[in-house]
Design a protein that fits this description.
The complex is a heterotrimer of chains A (about 170), B (about 325) and C (about 270). Chain A contains 3 helices and 9 strands; from the N terminus they run αββββαβαββββ. Chain A is an alpha/beta fold. Chain A has 2 domains: about 5-85, GMP Synthetase, Chain A, domain 3 (2-Layer Sandwich), CATH 3.30.300.130; about 90-160, no CATH class. In chain A, the strands form 3 sheets. In chain A, strands 6-9-8-7 form a 4-stranded mixed β-sheet. Chain B is mainly α and about 325 residues long. The relative contact order of chain B is 0.11. The N and C termini of chain B lie far apart (about 50 Å). Chain B is built from 13 helices and 2 strands. Helix content of chain B is about 65%, strand content about 0%. Chain B has one domain: Ferritin, core subunit, four-helix bundle (Ferritin), CATH 1.20.1260.10. Chain B has helices at about 10-25, 35-60, 70-100, 105-115, 130-150, 160-185, 190-210, 215-220, 225-230, 235-255, 280-290, 295-305, 310-320, and strands spanning about 265, 270-275. With about 270 residues, chain C is mostly helical. In chain C, helix 5 packs across helix 10 (about 205-225). Classes of the chains: A alpha/beta (about 170), B mainly alpha (about 325), C mainly alpha (about 270). At the B-C interface, helix 2, helix 3, helix 6, helix 12 and helix 13 of B face helix 1, helix 2, helix 3 and helix 7 of C. Chain C: This is Phenylacetate-CoA oxygenase subunit PaaC. Chain C: It comes from Fictibacillus norfolkensis. Chain B: Keywords: Oxidoreductase. Chain B: It is an enzyme of class 1 (oxidoreductase). Chain B: Its EC number is 1.14.13.149.
Amino acid sequence: MSELKSSMIDSVMDALGDVKDPEIASVSILDLGMVHEVDVTDDKVRISVLPTFSGCPALHIIERDIKKAIENVEGITSAEVKFVFTPSWTTDRITPEGRESLKEFGISPPPANHVMGEPWEIDCPYCGSTYVTMENIFGPTACRSILYCKSCKNPFEAMKPVADMG
Amino acid sequence: MTVGMSFNQLSEEEKMTHFLDRINAGEKIEPDDWMPEDYRLQLIRLISMHGISEIMGALPEKEWVPKAPSLHRKLAIMAKVQDEMGHGQLLLRVAEDLMAPLGKNRHDIMEDLFSGKLKFHNVFHMDAPTWGDAGIIAWLVDGAAIISQSMMLDSSYGPYARALKRICAEEVFHAQHGESIILAMAEGTPEQREMLQDSLNRWWESLIMFFGPKSAKETGNSNADKNIMYKIRTKTNEDLRQEFFTKYIPRIWSLGLTIPDDTIRFDEDSQMWIYKDADWSKFKQIVSGNGPQSQNRLDLRRRSYKNNEWVRTALAAKKAI
Amino acid sequence: MTQETLKPQEKKALIELLYQLADDDFLLAFRGSEWLGLAPHIEEDVAFSSISQDMMGHANLYYNLLENIGEGEADRIAHLRSPNQFRNAIILEEVNGPGTYLKEPDYDWAFTVVRNYFYAVHKHIRLDSLRHSSYEPLAEAARKIMTEQYYHLMHWEIWFKQLMTSTDEAILRMTAAIQKVWKDFGGVLTLGPYYEDIVKANLIDDENVMKKRWNNKIEAVLKEVGASYPGEPRMERGNGRNGVHTEDLKQATATLSEVYATNPATGW
């Protein structure tokens, strides 16, 4: 890869770091591991993005925000965004920074290397206690559950683990 | 406080001083902390009303869920109403902890709703007869909700402030969805524009009412003032309404829509919006359960609560085993 | 296979299958959305509306696959077909109970649990097969849908087992619901008149294989909760895969397209 191209990709990645999840202001699509591939040819960028879940109504907004962010990068004139399902997005794609930001937001990050069908342990994002109860496996958004911490008495949310089912 | 002397030995007055010192220093009050009874009652009133409004708020929008005019809109409105139900659950959980020392629980909240004792927001008592209304609700009602909820992000009560942080972020997303419905209609056919203008006309007074009356004079109670003292909220009703005007009136105008108030204008001298105030006696009637849809929507809830009693009984029997 | 390598007969079979998949989820998601605000408790309102939203998302994916192979715009497909062009199973279009979602809904929770649980079991079996489909875009979609559907299946299974082993009233209502669903559930398990072409193109497993998996699973669950297995589910009111439907579908499509049909050409 030419030096120019790799520095261009760096700038594009920087810009993508500013594209936030429309429902979680502190977490970017990079933090969530939604960006699959970035390809720069001359002044054009093609980005493939993995939706976190298939009925996500925020994809239009994410696409718009990506284009807005990328088209501000010097030397880029157009950005093409494609949503793809392969590879499958899984919760293991969330970065360590992403996991921290989720916690600050009151959302427990999913367990690492989860195998579908097995139980998972969740800590309270506020006080770290494991003395929590699952109040509803379905939460306000499709990817989360509602829990309650019996130690600090805060309701909180947790991201449902999503693993590839082979 | 002297070392060795327990908090419980303090007089009520000293406890109160200590409590006010804490909230004035920006500390958060937690569920098991000592709090004045009045603070607890204010929180229960505010949070249960907020929670139940999220739940009752699903009903006018629900009317439009299956009818939303594209697959994308169907998904977006389903997601929105679903979020709101989730917010309702989170908020009622916070309210339940506050109510527990008073011997009350979720069932009491539902009973209070059915009996009319627990009020819900004026906007959810109103008719939503067209798709334009679904757009106005998502854009302006949610926009108004963001303004009033954002001021409570720093609420002195910890669990409420924390839940609001996530709730507000999602409301911002809803308002974007609403704005996109509005834009599509405003850029659409004359029929679509007319439908939109009709909806705005229908909802304007409700939006004025959304923030509550200017002062205790209109309602005869001073919950808002008390909540400011307790740092549950930080702004007056009128502050919030003015903020709403500043944010949305220019946007409404830029879409070529007309606000159904020919007196509305920004007054440079006072730096305030001048507008035609709502009819507050009508507001009282509406929130007392006499709005155009109050009883219909409550009936839907009551009816399903009754129809499904066997389910709750069955679940309780399982738990007892 | 990709769109370019499909032979005409395979394409026809694929289109038939996609309509079945899309319409099944579309109609059941619609019936689910009618429950909004009426579920037995708030937690269930949150959960059920989340499941319905997911299912609407799945329907949307399938309609988009149809759009991509030249069946027209996804929105037109979903909103403008006449009822006899729908390929969903009849049991999935059936109303939730007396009344409408806006007026005097006397919806039947037992029927809803049974219908959704039986459907979720079949949907899981179907997806498990589809992820190896010869048509790669469909296999990809199935793999994605499966991670979400996993939670739906778990949800309905808990409901089903809990109510089947609780109060006498609950068991009575659930048993009546099973009998009712059984009369038409055969319509979900069939691949319809193009069954042979669908299987020959390796789009999905043979319907008899999948039927057997479903029957085995349900028979085991019924046994576990102390109920008897009523024999193969039937198709008393006809086969929706042939375009045979009831008045309930007319009501459903009229509601679903009420706004869109006023002007399909404009942006909404």
